[in-house]
Amino acid sequence: NAGVTQTPKFRVLKTGQSMTLLCAQDMNHEYMYWYRQDPGMGLRLIHYSVGEGTTAKGEVPDGYNVSRLKKQNFLLGLESAAPSQTSVYFCASCLLAGGPRSTGELFFGEGSRLTVL
Amino acid sequence: RKEVEQDPGPFNVPEGATVAFNCTYSNSASQSFFWYRQDCRKEPKLLMSVYSSGNEDGRFTAQLNRASQYISLLIRDSKLSDSATYLCVVTSGGGADGLTFGKGTHLIIQP
């Protein structure tokens, strides 16, 4: 059971380049999330999805787009990368259909370290 | 006032000692509370929930003080492997829009 898998794990981009981070979960979870984690800032929610075909904005959505074409996959796109997007990105999914607030349990991927030069 | 605040530390504690740290929250309507653990360069993982009556899991005890709006985590007989960053989570109401994490308290257990 792989759980939550993120690819790539490391990437270096130049300003203005585009890229897509892929999150895949094999637990049949409905809810999926993209966070970024920066020193001194903690984890901040970028976008999330409550099911296939649906997405919603989180706390820091600007500069990112997402898609959930298949239940098991949640893609995070950077159309024109900026140095401010240098961060560690975590994908997470939730077990219960009622959302993570009841159990508090989000299952995280191992993270993707992105550097924008 | 920030929604969730934690002392970033680091807390340097000798092995075998007891250590405790708090997390304060601003929303008095908050209903659910959790502690996560994050090892260096790893993903966060749920450590334990915090119930109104407090709860204990082995060497770990979590407590909630609604009057003063904080939760606490106490670790007894600390081990080297307890070295990590501990993130608190405070939520209010239901919904799917994720969890809000504190910035974390860094704990270093020294031999």
Structure characterization notes:
The complex is a heterodimer of chains A (117) and B (111). Chain A is mostly beta strands and 117 residues long. Chain A contains no helices and 11 strands. In chain A, strands 2, 4, 5, 6, 9, 10 and 11 form a 7-stranded mixed sheet that branches. Chain A has a 4-stranded antiparallel sheet with strand order 1-3-8-7, with no helix packed on it. The radius of gyration of chain A is 13 Å and the shape is globular. Chain B has 111 residues and is an all-beta fold. Chain B has strands spanning 4-6, 11-14, 19-25, 32-38, 44-50, 55-57, 60-65, 70-75, 84-91, 105-110. Chain B is globular, with a radius of gyration of 14 Å. The interface between A and B is medium-sized, with 28 and 27 residues.
What's the number of helices of chain A? 0
Largest interface, and how many residues on either side?
A: A-B, 28 and 27 residues
Termini gap of chain B = 37 Å
Structural class determined from secondary elements of chain B? mainly beta
Shape of chain A: globular
Q: Order of SSEs of chain B, N→C?
A: EEEEEEEEEE
* Oligomeric composition of the shown chains: heterodimer
- Helix proportion range of chain B: under 10%
Low-confidence stretches of chain B: none
What is the makeup of the main sheet of chain B?
Answer: 5 strands, antiparallel
Largest sheet of chain A: 7 strands, mixed
Q: Which structural category do the helix and sheet elements of chain A fall into? A: mainly beta
* Uncertain ranges of chain A: none
Strand-and-helix sequence of chain A, N→C? EEEEEEEEEEE
Spatial shape of chain B: globular
- N/C terminus separation of chain A: 36 Å
Short description, anyone?
The complex is a heterodimer of chains A (117) and B (111). Chain A has 117 residues and is an all-beta fold. Chain A has strands spanning 4-7, 10-13, 19-25, 31-38, 42-51, 54-57, 65-67, 73-78, 87-94, 106-108, 112-116.
